[in-house]
Design goal:
By secondary structure, the protein is α/β, with parallel strands linked by helices. Helices cover about 35% and strands about 15% of the residues. It has one domain: 3-Layer(aba) Sandwich (Rossmann fold). It is globular, with a radius of gyration of 21 Å. The N terminus is likely disordered. Keywords: Hydrolase, Signal.
């Protein structure tokens, strides 16, 4: 009696490989439908888990894990799967960790009000240690942000739009009293200029109220932030979130919480 023929394992493995390649190809072909500008200084750039021994601890919570539906605009202005540290290659000269961008995207995509099939595109633009004056129209940081925002939309092949700018900045403006007092006017000018230069007159801006500062005028900057007046502006307060041992940067759990708060603020505008 002849023995039974052995299963055609190479053929099965080949089929599985082809299916996997197809799935990867489908994911790689995604383009964002909702694009978000992430701008400001170090707490937007992300220092969660990166405030000890001048290195990042590498801890990535599940709320910050990579997902085929969350992309980031790379330093080379190409969409790629987003992963921590999100601002790698953007917030240059700094040790980077977890920021609010990835948990924001995860929370948004889980929200019932999020458009079905949405793909989130994150455009990292933050730079640590920068006062708001360094973001004024015509500055290097402003021009870089506008260049990246325009490239982000161009890379969606007509499928995506800029849904909001998320802004977390102000810690450096706590050093000098004159900067703290000037913050309201500078932020209002920034909002007007970004909307005009992007051609989005009613662009949603979600501003984060600072929780810490590099100087003694934290309360003045926070008061100035709350005094900013502009249509379609939302305010999310970071005060009370856990702060790392350097007394300046939010911890990883705090950044996860902040990302969810930002997502809640955005989703509230969809109703």
């Amino acid at each position: 009696m002849q023995p039974a023929a052995a299963p055609a394992m190479p053929s099965i493995l080949l089929l599985l490989a082809l299916l996997a390649a197809t799935a990867v190809g489908a994911g790689a072909g995604r383009t964002p439908t909702l694009v978000f500008i992430l701008a400001g200084q170090s707490n937007m750039g992300g220092r969660g888990g990166a405030t000890l021994n001048n290195r990042w601890d590498g801890v990535v919570p599940r709320e910050c894990a990579p997902s085929p539906r969350t992309l980031r605009l790379s330093p080379a202005l190409r969409w790629e799967e987003a992963r921590e540290p999100l601002h790698s290659g953007i917030d240059v000269g700094n040790v980077l960790g977890v920021g609010p961008g990835m948990p924001f995207a995860h929370a948004l995509l889980r929200a019932p009000a999020c458009p079905r099939g949405a793909v989130v595109g994150l455009v990292p633009c933050a730079q640590g240690g920068t006062p708001i004056a360094n973001w004024s129209r015509g500055s290097d940081l402003y021009d870089r942000m506008l260049t990246r925002a325009r490239a982000a939309v161009a890379q969606t092949n007509g499928k995506g739009r800029i849904a909001a700018m998320l802004w977390f900045q102000g810690e450096t403006d706590t050093i000098r009293r004159e900067d703290a007092l000037a913050y309201t006017g500078r932020m209002e000018a920034l909002i007007r200029d970004v909307r005009r230069d992007l051609g989005i007159p009613n662009l949603l801006v979600i501003q984060v109220g600072i929780a810490t500062g590099q100087g003694k005028f934290v309360d003045l900057v926070r008061k100035a932030q709350r005094a900013v007046r502009a249509p379609n502006l939302r305010y999310v307060d970071a005060m009370g979130l856990p702060v790392a041992n350097d007394f300046t940067h939010l911890t990883t759990p705090a950044q996860v919480r902040l990302g969810k708060m930002l997502a809640d603020a955005y989703v509230a505008t969809l109703h």
